[in-house]
Structure formats: structure tokens, C-alpha cells
Specification:
By secondary structure, the chain is mainly alpha-helical. It is about 70% helix and about 0% strand. It is rod-shaped. InterPro entries: IF_conserved, IF_rod_dom.
């Protein structure tokens, strides 16, 4: 009879331990789907962040391309304006020589505005060089050949 009683006492203990193990297993199974859902949410967020970053990168590359095109257009406009300026400088120098007359240049050195070369052309480009050929002592005017006459 003692053996039966001991079996009866041990049986509920084993059952209790088995029940606790099963409860733990159930809890783990309940938390695993939550973790899987969290992992899926994290992946979704990463995908969204990646697409957002790609969108920003595409927008920045387009903005860079527009800025480069704008700079190229401004450079062309600047070069066109410089050509016009040089033409006007040449015309001004021609009229200045006509106004000074031929006799003044042989008697004394002609009066020149600062930044003009001996031919009356504007030499006020950065560094005081010819705006056409970038030489410090060239003709500096129409048909600039790089000679050292200024």
C-alpha cells in the first residue's frame, strides 16, 4: 500500500512538472509569432527607409545635373558678354585714338586710362593680362597674336 501511495504522490509531482514544462512551451510559442511579426515590421521599415533614401538620392542627382546645366549656361552667357565687352573696348579705343588725333602720339605719349594698353584696349582682366590671350604684354586686341607690343 505504501508503494501505491508513493506512486500517487509522485504522479501528481511529475504531472505538475510536466504541466509547467507545457506551460513554458506554450508561452514560447505565443512569443515567437510576436517576434516574427516584429521582424517583418523591421524588414518593412528597412525597405521603406531604403526606398526613401533611393528617392532622395535620385532627387539630389537630378538637382546636381540641373546645377551643372545652369552653370554651363551661365558660363556661355559670360563668354558671350566678354566677347561683346572686348568688341566695345576695341571700339572705344578706336574712337579715343580718333579724338586724340595723329599729332599727339608722335609728340608725346598719349594719355591713357588706367588698365588700357598702348593700343587703347582694356587690360583690366584679372592679373592685368590680355583678356583674349591671357598674356601680360600682348597686343591684346582684335587679331591678338600674342606679340609683345602692348
Amino acid at each position: 500500500m505504501k508503494a501505491t501511495v508513493q506512486k500517487g504522490v509522485q504522479s501528481p509531482r511529475h504531472s505538475k512538472e510536466a504541466l509547467n514544462r507545457l506551460n513554458q512551451a506554450i508561452q514560447q510559442l505565443k512569443t515567437e509569432p510576436c517576434e516574427l511579426e516584429k521582424a517583418k515590421d523591421v524588414e518593412t521599415l528597412q525597405d521603406m527607409a531604403s526606398s526613401s533614401t533611393k528617392g532622395k538620392l535620385a532627387w539630389l542627382e537630378a538637382a546636381l545635373q540641373r546645377a551643372k546645366q545652369d552653370m554651363a549656361r551661365q558660363l556661355r552667357e559670360y563668354q558671350e558678354l566678354m566677347i561683346v565687352k572686348l568688341g566695345l573696348d576695341f571700339e572705344i579705343a578706336t574712337y579715343r585714338r580718333l579724338l586724340e588725333g595723329p599729332g599727339l602720339t608722335s609728340v608725346s605719349a598719349p594719355l591713357r586710362a588706367p588698365g588700357l594698353c598702348s593700343r587703347g584696349l582694356d587690360m583690366s582682366a584679372p592679373g592685368g593680362v590680355c583678356a583674349l590671350c591671357s598674356s601680360a604684354a600682348c597686343v591684346g586686341g582684335f587679331g591678338c597674336l600674342g606679340s609683345r607690343e602692348c
